[in-house]
Design goal:
The structure holds 2 protein chains of 2 kinds. Helix content of chain A is about 65%, strand content about 0%. Chain A is mainly α. Chain A has 2 domains: about 35 residues; about 100 residues, Di-heme elbow motif domain (Multiheme cytochrome fold), CATH 1.10.3820.10. Chain B has 2 domains: about 30 residues; about 300 residues, Flavocytochrome C3, Chain A (Flavocytochrome C3, Chain A, domain 2, Orthogonal Bundle). In chain B, the strands form 4 sheets. In chain B, strands 1-2 form a two-stranded antiparallel ribbon. In chain B, strands 3-4 form a two-stranded antiparallel sheet. Chain B has a two-stranded antiparallel sheet with strand order 5-6. Classes of the chains: A mainly alpha, B mainly alpha. Chains A and B meet through α1 of A and α1 and β7 of B.
């Protein structure tokens, strides 16, 4: 009898957690993060100004957020989305991050690779034998957005 | 139900885990909800603000985040060259302050010789935050050294509503009335340090100019540039306003005529040479030097003028971009009303544009400031040498005919140096221009000394060259 009551509570609690979780997922537009739509990245207000700058920038018709900020293979893309998504959600929920956000080294490498994905031939011609010593975004910092 | 039945311990554990999960998900849900609400509601209008609401605390009811930041200008924190820690002060009848800023006169006694015979040689301290502007002016020893006019309050108190009231609705008339009063007569009308209404229009929060002296100064400046009848409130862009509201006070000025009208000397332009040329033309002097008898000029705090000569102004960067950068409060972005040195706020002030580590940016700024600081010392030595030499010639019986050319060089050199050292950026607002001004000032001191020895300087270059 006692055990039966406790098991019912457990089932209810688990169900409530799952239900709340699903509701939160929909409410926070969690499904949109699986897409390629740049507006999804601006769901959280921190990215608003970068999204705005991208819309006014030179790459708006050529590349979306994912084209430059995630790897171009399927697994790498979703692993990057998951790890960045988790880190961003954690930071935005708990706070304590700088207002002018800065890219991490791993993400910078992703972006550098993405530049070469489209502009490979011209970058090869510039780099020649230097091979990967040059950074595209050091000079072209505002190619995607300010 | 289950073949393998759970122990009580396991059940309790899993119940706790499920409960913790539910708590976590609910907390996340509420956090997301709050962020969404923040993004939707920039402010709640809880009081009606009118064009006569002077008290910033009332504005603060509608804009609590901006108000909280504004109140923080009481902070006293120094940088390598600027600001001051809170220094204890024994209250006296004339000066009840318990905390003041460091004395610049004690730090560099050459300033006393530079300003001999003028009130600034009695008391001159490091700047403090906006919160202190009214107290620091009311209680400075300069008030005892000389009788100050009501004009001073233009920039040390919230004056928009006062001007309007004293002018019967006419801002300029109220401004003129205050200028004509003595400082302590006018002081009775002032309630607050600079407040919301001095920069913001109460219905739309748009920036606007409230100081007649700036309206007139900009009209004179634009007329010199070939634009007639410039009306700053009608013609300035939003981005220009983000500097102009600061330029109402952070400028060079003088009091014109017996009516002590606050005037910005920009008819010929905002460079130090153009300002001296203007003062020479109207034969203006702030005081007569106590030791040499030279007709002197005192520079105030020409941040707006020197900023206009720097690379940031040229790139369209306003005062507010660095001194009031955007700050995020939850999902809302507001401008930081805790006005302060960008060096105390490098991430928001600099890194929005300059993507370099904080330490790197700080050392770049400090390098510029150290170069300036070192050359400033050389120029101060040169000025003191000139003053000593004029004093010596005077003591030896030289007359005005012999002394006047050297006195004129002293007047100019002193103003050039004052212009860049009284300015609050230690040379940063326009690094090249500030070093150029110091270089010219050192040359003026040299010419002054040569004039006393009846020698002409080598004229390989002309001082009247176009800068």
């Amino acid at each position: 009898m006692k055990r039966h009551v406790i098991e019912s509570v457990l089932v209810l609690l688990t169900g409530a957690t799952l239900g709340l979780g699903m509701y939160t997922f929909v409410y926070a537009k969690g499904y949109s993060y699986l897409s390629n739509n740049p507006a999804a990245c601006a769901n959280c207000h921190v990215m608003g100004e970068y999204y705005g700058a991208w819309m006014k920038g030179p790459h708006r018709n050529a590349a979306t957020c994912n084209d430059c900020h995630t790897p171009h293979d399927l697994v790498g893309k979703y692993v990057t989305k998951a790890s960045n998504g988790f880190a961003h959600s954690l930071a935005f929920t708990l706070g304590g991050f700088p207002d002018a956000i800065a890219i991490k080294d791993r993400s910078r490498r992703v972006t550098e690779n993405a530049c070469r994905n489209c502009h490979g031939s011209i970058v090869d011609a510039i780099e020649g034998s230097h091979s990967r010593e040059l950074s595209c975004i050091r000079c072209h910092a505002d190619a995607g957005h300010m | 139900m289950n073949e393998r039945s759970w122990t009580t311990k396991q059940l309790a554990l899993w119940t706790s885990v499920a409960a913790a999960g539910a708590i976590g998900v609910t907390a996340l849900l509420v956090s997301i909800f709050e962020h969404k609400q923040e993004a939707r509601n920039p402010f709640y209008r809880v009081v009606e603000l009118t064009d006569d609401t002077e008290d910033p605390a009332v504005w603060g009811k509608n804009f609590p985040m901006q108000y909280d930041l504004y109140l923080r200008t009481v902070d006293m924190e120094r940088t390598l060259y600027g600001g001051s820690e809170a220094m204890p002060h024994s209250p006296t009848a004339a000066d009840p302050r318990t905390v003041v800023a460091r004395s610049k006169l004690e730090e560099d006694p050459r300033l006393k010789e530079m300003w001999a015979g003028y009130a600034f040689s009695k008391d001159y301290r490091e700047r403090r935050g906006h919160a202190y502007m009214l107290d620091d002016q009311t209680f400075t020893e300069r008030q005892q050294a000389a009788k100050q006019p009501g004009t001073c309050l233009n920039c040390h108190a919230s004056m928009y509503v006062v001007y309007k009231r004293l002018g019967g609705g006419d801002l300029t008339k109220g401004f003129e009335n205050i200028n004509r009063m003595s400082y302590f007569e006018a002081r009775k009308y002032a309630q607050h340090p600079v407040a919301c209404i001095d920069c913001h229009e109460p219905k739309t929060m748009a920036l606007r100019i409230t100081r007649p002296a700036f309206m007139e100064g900009m009209r004179a400046l634009k007329a010199g540039e070939g634009i007639a009848n410039y009306d700053v409130n009608a013609s300035a862009t939003r981005q220009e306003m983000r500097s102009f509201v600061c330029g109402q006070c952070h400028v060079e000025y003088y009091f014109a005529g017996p009516e002590k009208r606050l005037t910005f000397p920009w008819n010929k332009g905002r460079k130090v040479d153009q300002i001296v040329a203007y003062y020479d033309e109207i034969k203006f002097k702030d005081w007569v030097h106590g030791e040499t008898g030279a007709p002197m000029l005192k520079a105030q705090h020409p941040e707006f003028e020197l900023w206009s000569q720097g690379i940031h102004a040229r790139s369209g960067v306003s005062c507010a971009d660095c001194h009031m950068p955007y700050v995020r409060e939850g999902a809302v972005k507001i401008s930081d009303h805790h006005v302060r040195s960008p060096l105390l706020n490098i991430n928001r002030a600099c890194q929005t544009c300059h993507r370099w580590p904080e330490e790197e940016l700080k050392s770049r700024v400090e390098e510029i400031q150290t170069r300036f600081h070192d050359l400033r010392n050389v120029a101060m030595d040169a000025l003191v040498d000139l003053i000593e030499e004029i004093k010596g010639a005077k003591a030896a019986g030289a007359g005005d005919a012999e002394l006047d050319p050297a006195r004129d060089y002293q007047r100019k050199a002193s103003f050039y140096i004052d212009f860049v050292i009284s300015e609050n950026s230690m040379g940063f607002h326009a690094d090249g221009e500030c070093l150029r001004v110091l270089g010219d000032a050192i040359d003026l001191c040299r010419r002054g000394q040569l004039a006393l020895r009846s020698k002409s300087p080598a004229m390989r270059t002309s001082l009247e060259r176009q800068h």
